[in-house]
Design brief:
It contains two helices and three strands. It is an alpha+beta fold. The protein has one domain.
Length: about 100
């Protein structure tokens, strides 16, 4: 049986650079003081970086579409009053690519 994949939570990017054809993206988490603290490094061959970026962009587009659909289904009266984005009742987004 294979071991589970490593899981990393990140709030954002602390630093990114390219050296010798490899993109190194230092991910960060908000520390107790609210400042980002490095939590891991995503290393991607530069030739694959557009594939990774396009995958993330596709996810953002799916989220945007689903949120607009949820707001439209809630009706025009509910849209202005909604302070937080609409999510499924279990708090998770699920998309099938």
């Amino acid at each position: 049986m294979s071991s589970p994949l490593p899981t990393l939570f990140a709030d954002g990017v602390v630093e990114a650079n390219v050296t010798h054809g490899v993109a190194r993206i230092t991910l960060g988490q908000a520390g107790a003081d609210g400042k980002p603290q490095p939590c891991g490094v995503l290393i991607v061959p530069l030739v694959q970086l557009p594939v990774v970026a396009n995958g993330l962009l596709a996810l953002l587009k799916q989220i945007d579409t689903k949120m607009k659909e949820a707001q439209a289904a809630a009706g025009p009266a509910a849209a202005p009053a909604a302070a937080e984005p609409a999510v499924p009742s279990d708090g998770a987004f699920r998309f099938n690519a």
